[in-house]
Amino acid sequence: MLFFYFHVYLYENQFDKKMKIIEEKVITERTKNKYGQYFTPKIIADFMIELADINQNSKILEPSCGEGVFLKSLQEEGFENIIAYEIDEELVKKLNFENIICESFISAKINEKFDLIIGNPPYIRWKNIEEELKAELIKSELWNRYFNSLCDYLYIFILKSIEVLAENGQLIFICPEYWLNTTHSLSLRNYMVKNGYFEVIYHFNETPIFEGATVSVIVFKYVKSKNKIPFIDIIKYHKNKKITTEIIEQIKERKEVDFFKVKQFEANKRWLLTDENEVLEIENFEKACQITQNNSTKNAINNDLFASLSENKTDTKVIYSTINDICDIGNGMVSGLDKAFQLDKKNDKQTLETLSEIEKESTVSVIKAKNLIPFTYNEITPYIFVNEENTKIIDEEELENYYPNFYKKLKPLKEKLEKRYQYNRKINYWEWVFLRNYNLFNSEKPRIFVPCKERISNKNYFRFSFVEQGVFPTQDVTALFLKENVKENIFYVLAFLNNPRVFNWLKNKGIIKGNIVEFSEKPISSIPFRKIDWKNQTEIELHNQIVELTELFILERKQEILTEINQLFDVLLNSKID
């Protein structure tokens, strides 16, 4: 009997422990989602503390201390004059540190100045911010002065930290890098330029630092000062390896990294972690695509968030032409379950051989992203397309009668098809769920396809591909169509988009998450474009040569042809640079 109770006791004790672990995990996941928490590994906290140039009596602030990793490391280094804030009560209860204030740093009334502010601020996109946090921001004087509902939670942590720094105080944060060049963070960047300077920025790209998060990360040291140093040290570590003590030592010794200096960032500009030679190439590329507009077009210009604006001495606005000026752009259609609709030439060979005429007429030709290569493509895949746009099927019985091969393929997947996202309407299981841009894709025009996302960690090119009319993109592809009255040939546009200058521009100024470049409508529309001066015979001849060689390259795929195309672009683009 005692043996039985002993095992019951052990079972219950183990059960309680398991439940406690589960409960703690649930709390952690819930609060992580709520407060934007991603906890810093100690090895990174130690590395960041080493960047600080302070003494043992310096006043230190940690504005969102989380699990207390920075506090522990600071104490190990002998620092005692530390204050920390943490909004999450569950985390505060677990910390053995007397100077933690369980309060939101955003709302806290702070009347003292600090020599060092260090940590890992929360980052939450506005659309994901909890209502109680939004309400707090709306009441914040700083938020209302500098930010709006297009801005992220991270921004106010950076700005308020600088507000409570002492003169020559240091701000050392680890955070995502995206705010360095987004439109919505411009007010933050301008504030930082006005109030101090960057000493060093470490760019870790997609190095796996935070558990469960793939994000391009920087560690920066910013100094609040009226006097500035001329250059920022940029150290890039881009290996996809988990950070170890050995790797940290290599980084500190400038081994296995890219190291260069850039000039201090300027107001009203995007901040690029790029060496001066590459920046000059980008500026020259934009200059080669520039056109001059007078003030009558000012309103139109201001509506384009991606336009590159600058003022010259005659009070006119100088902008560059973009792909948006010459192309209609559309993201591909959504089937909701590609494997159901694909008629794969290998796996569906028998079905393809037995299709009736009406079934053949109810297929569309599709090119997937994986089959795109620069300038052209490898394979076209037929897809079942029994939507109301090309058929009047109203029920499952008609589907079986008129489209027996389609019915045989789709019926086993009915349950999965009915679980697709319905886009706020009732969708028959044999239909595609979202035919966005169908009329554009169904036009009798050739088109250029590009994958919606492109990883560039191991390549120096994109895959803009010429595709004939009648071929459709799915959701992993974006398509470009020349607008009416555009005189440039589509093969000229194709060769331009595959030019190394476009790759370099997008790598630095495109929409990038880690090593992945996004090619949705807005990022593509922002790409600078070199229009032809149709009154200039030399430019016309260059245009025609590029078109002829591009068509030849698609047929023959010879490297020397591509080299000649890019040399012609060198001549054309350099002709506008003083």
Task: Describe the protein in words.
By secondary structure, the protein is an alpha/beta fold. The protein has four domains: 1-32; 36-105 and 112-265, Vaccinia Virus protein VP39 (Rossmann fold, 3-Layer(aba) Sandwich); 282-320, no CATH class; 329-531, Adenine-n6-DNA-methyltransferase TaqI, Chain A, domain 2. The strands form six sheets. It has a nine-stranded mixed beta sheet with strand order 3-2-1-4-5-7-6-8-9, sandwiched between helices. A four-stranded antiparallel beta sheet has the order 13-22-18-20. Strand 15 (372-373) and strand 16 (376-377) form a beta hairpin. Helix 15 (396-402) crosses helix 16. Belongs to the N(4)/N(6)-methyltransferase family.
The main β sheet shows up as:
9 strands, mixed
Counting DSSP H or I runs of 4 or more residues, the number of helices is: 23
Helix content percent band: 25-40%
Quaternary state reads single chain
CATH second-level architecture of the largest domain: 3-Layer(aba) Sandwich
Strand content: 15-25%
Helix/strand structural class: alpha/beta
User: Whole-number radius of gyration?
Assistant: 29 Å
> What global shape is seen?
globular
Task: Determine the mean pLDDT.
Answer: 85
Question: What is the end-to-end distance?
Answer: 96 Å
Low-confidence stretches: 1-33, 294-318
CATH superfamily of the largest domain: Vaccinia Virus protein VP39
CATH class of the largest domain: Alpha Beta
Strand order of the largest sheet: 3-2-1-4-5-7-6-8-9
Query: Into how many domains do the coordinates divide?
Result: 4
